[in-house]
Amino acid sequence: xxxxxxxxxxxxxxxxxxxxxxxxxxxxxxxxxxxxxxxxxxxxxxxxxxxxxxxxxxxxxxxxxxxxxxxxxxxxxxxxxxxxxxxxxxxxxxxxxxxxxxxxxxxxxxxxxxxxxxxxxxxxxxxxxxxxxxxxxxx
Amino acid sequence: xxxxxxxxxxxxxxxxxxxxxxxxxxxxxxxxxxxxxxxxxxxxxxxxxxxxxxxxxxxxxxxxxxxxxxxxxxxxxxxxxxxxxxxxxxxxxxxxxxxxxxxxxxxxxxxxxxxxxxxxxxxxxxxxxxxxxxxxxxxxxxxxxxxxxxxxxxxxxxxxxxxxxxxxxxxxxxxxxxxxxxxxxxxxxxxxxxxxxxxxxxxxxxxxxxxxxxxxxxxxxxxxxxxxxxxxxxxxxxxxxxxxxxxxxxxx
Amino acid sequence: xxxxxxxxxxxxxxxxxxxxxxxxxxxxxxxxxxxxxxxxxxxxxxxxxxxxxxxxxxxxxxxxxxxxxxxxxxxxxxxxxxxxxxxxxxxxxxxxxxxxxxxxxxxxxxxxxxxxxxxx
Amino acid sequence: xxxxxxxxxxxxxxxxxxxxxxxxxxxxxxxxxxxxxxxxxxxxxxxxxxxxxxxxxxxxxxxxxxxxxxxxxxxxxxxxxxxxxxxxxxxxxxxxxxxxxxxxxxxxxxxxxxxxxxxxxxxxxxxxxxxxxxxxxxxxxxxxxxxxxxxxxxxxxxxxxxxxxxxxxxxxxxxxxxxxxxxxxxxxxxxxxxxxxxxxxxxxxxxxxxxxxxxxxxxxxxxxxxxxxxxxxxxxxxxxxxxxxxxxxxxxxxxxxxxxxxxxxxxxxxxxxxxxxxxxxxxxxxxxxxxxxxxxxxxxxxxxxxxxxxxxxxxxxxxxxxxxxxxxxxxxxxxxxxxxxxxxxxxxxxxxxxxxxxxxxxxxxxxxxxxxxxxxxxxxxxxxxxxxxxxxxxxxxxxxxxxxxxxxxxxxxxxxxxxxxxxxxxxxxxxxxxxxxxxxxxxxxxxxxxxxxxxxxxxxxxxxxxxxxxxxxxxxxxxxxxxxxxxxxxxxxxxxxxxxxxxxxxxxxxxxxxxxxxxxxxxxxxxxxxxxxxxxxxxxxxxxxxxxxxxxxxxxxxxxxxxxxxxxxxxxxxxxxxxxxxxxxxxxxxxxxxxxx
Lengths: 139, 252, 120, 597
Ligand SMILES: Cc1cc2nc3c(=O)[nH]c(=O)nc-3n(C[C@H](O)[C@H](O)[C@H](O)COP(=O)(O)OP(=O)(O)OC[C@H]3O[C@@H](n4cnc5c(N)ncnc54)[C@H](O)[C@@H]3O)c2cc1C
Ligand code: SF4
Ligand code: F3S
Ligand code: FES
Description:
The complex is a heterotetramer of chains A (139), B (252), C (120) and D (597).
Chain A: E1 3-6, H1 28-58, H2 61-71, H3 76-101, E2 105-106, E3 109-110, H4 113-137
Antiparallel strand pairs in A: 2-3
Helix pairs in contact in A: 1-2, 1-3, 3-4
Chain B: E1 5-13, E2 23-31, H1 37-48, E3 67-70, E4 73-76, E5 88-92, E6 98-100, E7 103-104, H2 107-115, H3 125-128, H4 142-146, H5 159-163, H6 165-169, H7 175-186, H8 194-202, H9 215-219, H10 226-245
Parallel strand pairs in B: 1-5
Antiparallel strand pairs in B: 1-2, 3-4, 3-5, 6-7
Helix pairs in contact in B: 2-7, 7-10
Chain D: E1 2-5, E2 8-11, H1 15-27, E3 33-37, E4 53-54, H2 63-73, H3 80-99, E5 114-115, E6 125-126, H4 132-144, E7 150-154, E8 156-164, E9 167-175, E10 180-185, E11 188-191, H5 212-219, E12 224-225, E13 230-236, H6 247-250, E14 254-256, H7 288-300, E15 305-307, E16 310-316, H8 321-328, H9 330-340, E17 349-358, E18 361-363, E19 375-377, E20 382-383, H10 395-417, H11 423-441, H12 449-463, E21 467-468, H13 470-488, H14 501-525, E22 534-535, H15 544-547, E23 549-556, E24 559-567, H16 581-596
Binding site for substrate (chain D): 233, 245, 356, 391
Enzyme class (chain D): oxidoreductase
Domain FAD-dependent oxidoreductase 2 FAD-binding (chain D): 7-397
């Protein structure tokens, strides 16, 4: 056992800095992070709006029609465009992060995350086009 | 080479016995194409103000001593060059208490590295006793090495802690380097220490305090990508969570 | 040194968060584009989302599932980020309250949507 | 004062100190270990070692080969009992590191890979890419954490050995963060403070490599051995001195002069080997002393390249290709591009010799025991008798482990066997010493210690460099005597307690001056040329009659060191000519012919 007996004066006085609530305004990198997290607000609003749609649906044709008119009103278009921008940012950041969490290995070698990110984009564009085609052709 | 140009440097000072809080001091230092921030600080110490304190040793970006905030970005002083800047503000690494001038108090950081039990575990107690010489290596193919190699390159410089706002807010967070170290061992085919280390990973102050800000990896001078390690650690922890819920297999 | 670590329950919400992020990234942009831009501008017929058509869609199991996925997972995703984001902004709600509001709220909406869809 | 009592004190947490501490913890878990280091363990300069660590593994290799390479590399100044013990222990220690998690580079089948190194007949250098020291140090540091009996005192700066009744009983150290003294009591002390490369101006060493332990032991009465032997590494970056590992040449890199000519063939290292087909102990794979000397001659002939950072030759790796460079030498690529703006995949790297390693140190026997009872030494601060007049690359990292274990076990045994210390006397001694250091902290004077440090480095470079002469060395001896006088008059401005580095640098400068003095005086007295000690005057050949001996420098009051000599242990290899390249091969085949008869 080590024994210790200390009679020295304490000269140290480490200076502790506290994080400010506005830390995310200090650096562009942090700001973009907050923006990324902020896109979730848009997502929440949209999800709730869609949920409302389901509720309106079971309330009957009239209720549904009302909902449809609200979401497709010309006033809603700019809001939707804004949402698209936010969603695009979400997608952009998501595809950048995902390959670093789930590493894909082919023949024991890890695929380059940049390559996987591009793969995500290709898949995304394909699903989007497919969805649009189905939607457009559904009439 | 001649030192034909000079640059003004603001250096943050804090001398606990004299100063109530940190303050900035201006210096003008000569520099050339090769001059690093570390060399600029050494010039200040040797020629302008010998009371300035900072840590350094290898001056080749491998010992991890010389982390400073350079224009508010965590960087290694010995691998940052004056030629890339027009003016400089140097301070102690963010998110750590300032011991003195540019010296950060990193004791808690080193404590975290120790806490994740960064050494090889084996189930067989005979294999844990390394005082007896062995005849053979554990086999490990280059591919198996590649699973953890990147995560074993950490020089413990602490830049990632200065970069991480989650650590900045909550000093309890084990943080990028320590979690990466834990993950490095977990991915090593020779290690059997899952039982020892998963509890830390699984805890609130483990991987789950990270919100993937990602700035840690951005500033890491050794491309360790701690953000990836932690977030792969989340996947590992999630799997461990499921294992805990599922009834234990018969062979346990 | 600390020695007793308490297992966090984050894996549950983190998994939902991850799934939601994926769905939001892959599917939502198309939905927003079609519903909120293409339809009002008349690029596609509004008939696609007529009461009749949507009911038809929502009465199939596949339709129900798709609706659940597109609505609820992104909601969990958002709840997760807002829950953590408030802490980031130093706007700490009491932890349990925050969990209740965000994950509890998302679960409520999920249950409601599920219930409504079952009615169809 | 802080009073701490442990069974064994280990000073220095580099590879040597950590290995020793682990050995104590494993062999004597009941003994407490205080591991004292002026920097956090992972900052120790072992971290910078790049190339690899030696250990016989291949079937066509043998301990005998490793022994022969080491002894001839040392120009027969190595103690052969130590070398024999060492080569047999190396593979065991390397395997142990493997079992502790060291990420050694592997072959496809999962076995350890080895690379070629200078002066080695067979490839036997274990490597972890080109960050071997980094990985070894971190492995040892991390492993040390698992032993509860090891207590670390990080950022404690050791200022004195405490000697009473003719044996070492403790050390005095500054707790750097608080600026106060701690008196450590221990029944044995392991010194593992590393080398002294910072005595010179251009070196591959970190700023902390200031010869502290050597000076501490010297001041406490232990002799420093073979201090005239200072290794110049042939391939450092001009300007900074940052090392480009010998592994570059081990992998097939070549050295060319201004004319693109592989000049090494002119210095008994040839014949020229085809590019991409390196041959052991030939050309670029010759020993470091010879290669550095060859540069010196090229410089005399004006066949070196003038760069803005000084003269250089080219280290050309281009033919290795990007893939091999990325796999085997990634750190080299990173360093060359960061510090010179040169990508070795596309351009040759300018390099020049820089001070790298101190072969000499605190003299120990095969048990790592010094002449001062209770004091053990290991690593670069020690002269275990292994390296003689020139160390072979990759023998040092291996030595840290082999001798680190020995030092730890021996120190533990000694701690068990020796009685209690007289606390009162030791405390009085420490208080007196501490007071003196405290006075230095506020000393007012006219001399700037930084300038003395620079002048010392310059005079060492000038007088005790690759080639030496009576006159030049004498000049350096005189200059150092003068610098020591100036040192008495230094003035310090800081005066505060917390992390006062100005004060610590001043103490280090005192150590450096002592070491520089011992090096130059030892060089002055060795009137022959051997290994890294080459003279231009009439003593330009090896003189086995008078100087097949270790030098021992003892401290004397108020004057330079007293130099004595000690016999070299020769067991089975009689001194012979040191041959490399074709000459060596010719001799070997002749030998085999003889043996065959
Ligand atoms: C750039 C470079 C590359 C190298 N490459 C190789 C290679 O490839 N192969 C090889 O075999 N060898 C190599 N070497 C040599 C080898 O790395 C060193 O000789 C070896 O690492 C020294 O280890 P050490 O434990 O003796 O000392 P260090 O690792 O230097 O540790 C010294 C320790 O002592 C402590 N200390 C010093 N003074 C004090 C004090 N006053 N108070 C308290 N603590 C103190 C320090 O804090 C530190 O912890 C290389 C050397 C250099 C410089
Ligand atoms: S992960 Fe990178 S930034 Fe963090 S301590 Fe390690 S090397 Fe430094
Ligand atoms: S910056 Fe911090 S939040 Fe996570 S990704 Fe890095 S540890
Ligand atoms: S001085 Fe070692 S990393 Fe900068």
